[in-house]
Amino acid sequence: MKYKSCRLLEHGIYFYLDPGSKQLCVGHCCNTDHLDLPHRLYLYDDLKNQTLNWDYIFEQKRKYRENAKKGIYPSQCEGCFELKEHDWDNEDYINHLTAGHIMKCNSRCVYCPIGRIPDCHNREQDVDMKPIINELLEKNLLRFNGSLRFVGGEPTLMKEFDWLVDLFSKNNVPEIYVPTSAIRLSKSLCNALQKVESAAIVASVDSGTKETFEKVKGTKFFDIVMKNMQTYLKHARKKDFIISKFILFTNYNDTSLEVETWLKNCKNIGHIEVQFDSEHSVSSSENCENKKYVNRTLKMLKYTELLAEKYNIKVTSFLAFMNRAKRIYEKQVNALNSTIDLKDIKNIDFDEQYRNLYLNLDEDVLSFINKDIDNLVQNEKFSPKRKVFLTSKNEITKTKDFNEIIMQLLRLGFDVELSTSKLSYDKTLDEMIKTSYSEITFNLVKIPIIFQIQKMIIKKKYKGIKLGNIKFD
């Protein structure tokens, strides 16, 4: 029957480690990851405490299928590029597998949102994919006429990576997609590139020189990455499916010389297509909400396109966030210089914008951050330069969920001001400062001499820090 639906809702399954809840989730697709966990199109929000039930999974898919026939779709799917008119079948099977349950990585990119959450970076959820896939095979529920896709983390470090790639490529899957650091060369992926019709590799090189590579990627494997990408190009049936990506990040690699050197390197090793982008987490911070930054990035994209013509390389870009940035910028002039208290979140006037947020750490605020506040940010109800004021009567670094609260707020693009009469140095504070790109201000009032000494120690420790900004009032 022909109707508008989505291949992932119909026949897809997605395994994902949620950075906020640290739970292994199972869903239909990865296209709703920007939403709060309760609003995502997930089948299970904690697989570790539940068992996969294929009857339940296909029952949910049948509900979406019947609604789609009537022209009814989940609100989360609105505007998604995957919604297409097609002659869909009514059978129950899986042919699109997305494995995204790994947070292990052999890089530490300065722009990575996962890298800013110490508890999640380099962490892999304890799950074995083989029994799940074998069960699908035994029940004749897995077909190989769809796709195998990875997200992460660094997919090639996944313990089942080579097994999955070999299994799907040997069964002639038409599509494999792997975003990778290209630090580890995968032999199974090399074989798949020769066999699979559309096997794509995208590596964010983000630099043209070793020095910039080390500064952006946090590793010293520039030569190895270039060599491995050249090896992948030699094995690929379609050279335009082996893509070097340049993610523009302010004050790190945003120079014309860096971009030109990157393109020269791409030409020398055989690339015929590249990608240009700007870091998406920046789009939720003041940088993307600043018109000057937006225009500079667009100019750099134009410059890259002109250079690429010179080297006979095709450039694609994923600057979708630019439209959002422009909308936010236009709204700035109407923003109210006001603060929302936690207790007022439920009664917010959605016709207005707000600049600041007030939270008392002595209350249970983490759930509000993960649900209500994240929603408000996504709906552009805070405008730059937005700040969250945190207060606590207790020693602030000992507050329950302190680390996670801070990290979630920083990920959402807030600057943070902490007001407390007590502050002691610990590893939590250390990680928070080192991984933050936002401004953190400590307002220490009426503190005893021991905290004055600790204040001086912390100030000295982070004097001249480049990755994070720390101020003491």
Model description:
This protein has helices spanning 7-11, 54-69, 129-138, 161-170, 187-195, 210-217, 222-235, 256-269, 291-310, 321-332, 366-378, 402-411, 427-434, 449-461, and strands spanning 2-6, 12-17, 24-27, 42-44, 83-87, 94-100, 142-150, 175-180, 198-204, 242-248, 273-278, 314-317, 336-341, 354-360, 382-391, 415-420, 439-444, 469-472. Residues 281-289, 324-329, 331-335, 434-438, 445-458 and 460-473 have low confidence and may be disordered. Helix 11 (366-378) links the parallel strand 14 and strand 15. Helix content is 34%, strand content 23%. The relative contact order is 0.07. The chain has two domains: 2-327, Aldolase class I (TIM Barrel); 334-472, Rossmann fold (3-Layer(aba) Sandwich), CATH 3.40.50. It starts with a strand and ends with a strand. It has 14 helices and 18 strands. By secondary structure, it is of the alpha/beta class. The strands form three sheets. The protein has a ten-stranded mixed beta sheet with strand order 4-3-2-6-7-8-9-10-11-12. Strands 13-14-15-16-17-18 form a six-stranded parallel beta sheet. It is globular.
Topology record:
Elements: E1 2-6, H1 7-11, E2 12-17, E3 24-27, E4 42-44, H2 54-69, E5 83-87, E6 94-100, H3 129-138, E7 142-150, H4 161-170, E8 175-180, H5 187-195, E9 198-204, H6 210-217, H7 222-235, E10 242-248, H8 256-269, E11 273-278, H9 291-310, E12 314-317, H10 321-332, E13 336-341, E14 354-360, H11 366-378, E15 382-391, H12 402-411, E16 415-420, H13 427-434, E17 439-444, H14 449-461, E18 469-472
Parallel strand pairs: 2-6, 6-7, 7-8, 8-9, 9-10, 10-11, 11-12, 13-14, 14-15, 15-16, 16-17, 17-18
Antiparallel strand pairs: 1-5, 2-3, 3-4
